[in-house]
């Protein structure tokens, strides 16, 4: 008879290879027997599981819906808690497992939420930053100031790989602009101190922050695009400094829209039918930048004919980018599609009215015990389901 320890080691290897975007299979496996549950709830297994997969999976994406709760669309077996549906909240950002919500009509304008653990943090306004905070999305306030906000893990890459950031600490970076005089404004909030930093400013003629654009984070620097896509504001949170980087006009490539970061560089996208162009930018000292064309993606063989039929350059654009897993969202007249840049796989995930996508990437390992407590599936049915998944995984691993 084979020793139980060897059997457990074999099952640990099998469980490690279950897809990271299928957390339900791991929960079901833990409900089969005490032995499997012990393996999956072991902190050492969770660390090994994250290390094996390398990048946090995309569990879904968020977008704002008119006169409705902020919408979460799952792209995996993960389902968020019903208590996270809140009307009047505008989704501003999603990064490192945290979603940032904005409710300007309330005394506490910002909320941060971990969709996996269902932890909530209230972020109160600060009198010295009142003019930046109380702005309603899509409209300008009486002072002509508008902003965007970015949430990020407060630990640097030396202390955190951003694969298991649940529980904080986190930072909130607020970057805005004033119409008169072209002034960039910025401040940051720390969940550790519950304090806002002093507001800093920088004059830049004609600058206007794009409050509906995507932001990017590289280290301790936050990058925010301008409305005309001709420049990017760099906010160094650690040094409390602002600078402006000009975005080059590349002949024949259309507008370059900031969509995120990849390999420590900013990633821009432009669509010129029927191709998607991806560009990278590495910021240097004093606002200097090195540019390179990263990739050209032919859209005709990937998207259905109706998505490209009679389309103009303004009818399709990059609506979002899932960092780490290299999945880009394209908004077309036929709907919202994801393109996995590594495999070329395409899926339709939404309708054409969705204009901005904020992917949610995170591992669910930290919340397994909590999910198991609310799982009411019967062990026999659960066992049959997970055994089928295990057979499929083993078959794929052996190449059979």
User: Helicity level, as a percent range?
Assistant: 10-25%
Q: What proportion strand?
A: 35-45%
Q: Over all CA atoms, what is the radius of gyration?
A: 22 Å
Anisotropy-based shape = globular
Ends distance:
28 Å
Mean pLDDT: 81
Class based on secondary structure composition and strand pairing: alpha+beta
Give a short account of the largest sheet.
5 strands, antiparallel
General description of the model:
The structure is a single chain. This protein is α+β, with helices and mostly antiparallel strands and 400 residues long. It contains 8 helices and 24 strands. Helix 1 (4-16) packs across helix 3 and helix 2 packs across helix 3 (34-40). The chain starts with a helix and ends with a helix. The relative contact order is 0.13. The model is unreliable at 136-143 and 372-400 (pLDDT under 50). InterPro entries: F-box-like_dom_sf, F-box_dom. This is F-box domain-containing protein. Residues 6-45 form the F-box domain. It comes from Hordeum vulgare subsp. vulgare.
């Amino acid at each position: 008879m084979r020793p139980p320890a060897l059997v457990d080691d074999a099952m640990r290897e099998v469980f490690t290879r279950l897809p990271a975007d299928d957390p339900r299979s791991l929960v079901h496996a833990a409900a089969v027997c005490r032995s499997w549950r012990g393996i999956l709830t072991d902190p050492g297994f969770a660390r090994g599981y994250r290390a094996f997969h390398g990048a946090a999976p995309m569990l879904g994406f968020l977008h704002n819906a008119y006169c409705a709760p902020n919408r979460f669309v799952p792209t995996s077996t993960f389902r968020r808690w019903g208590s996270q549906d809140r009307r009047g909240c505008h989704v501003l950002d999603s990064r490192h497992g945290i979603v940032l919500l904005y409710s300007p009509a309330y005394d506490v304008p910002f909320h941060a939420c971990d969709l996996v653990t269902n932890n909530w943090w209230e972020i109160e306004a600060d009198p010295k930053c009142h003019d930046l905070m109380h702005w309603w999305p899509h409209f300008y306030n009486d002072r002509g100031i508008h902003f965007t906000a970015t949430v990020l893990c407060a630990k640097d890459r030396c202390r955190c790989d951003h694969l298991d950031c649940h529980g904080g600490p986190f930072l909130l970076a607020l970057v805005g602009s004033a119409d008169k005089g072209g002034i960039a404004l910025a401040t940051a909030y720390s969940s550790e101190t519950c304090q806002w930093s002093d507001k800093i400013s920088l004059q830049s003629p004609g600058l206007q922050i794009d409050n509906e654009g995507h932001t990017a984070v590289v280290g301790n620097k936050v990058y925010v695009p301008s409305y005309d896509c001709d420049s990017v504001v760099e906010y160094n949170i650690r040094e409390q400094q602002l600078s402006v980087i000009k975005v080059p006009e590349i002949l024949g490539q259309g507008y370059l829209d900031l969509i995120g970061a990849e390999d420590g560089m900013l990633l821009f996208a432009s669509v010129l039918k029927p191709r998607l162009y991806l560009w990278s930018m590495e910021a240097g000292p004093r606002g200097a930048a090195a540019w390179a064309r990263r990739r050209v993606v032919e859209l005709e063989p990937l998207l259905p004919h109706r998505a490209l039929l009679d389309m103009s350059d303004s009818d399709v654009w990059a609506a979002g980018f899932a960092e780490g897993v290299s999945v880009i969202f394209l908004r077309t007249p036929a709907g919202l599609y994801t393109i996995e840049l590594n495999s070329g796989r395409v899926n339709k995930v939404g309708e054409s009215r969705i204009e901005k996508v904020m992917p949610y990437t995170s591992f669910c390992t930290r919340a397994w015990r909590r999910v198991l407590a609310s799982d009411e599936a019967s062990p026999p049915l659960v066992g049959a389901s997970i055994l089928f998944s295990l057979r499929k995984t083993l078959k794929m691993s052996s190449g059979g």
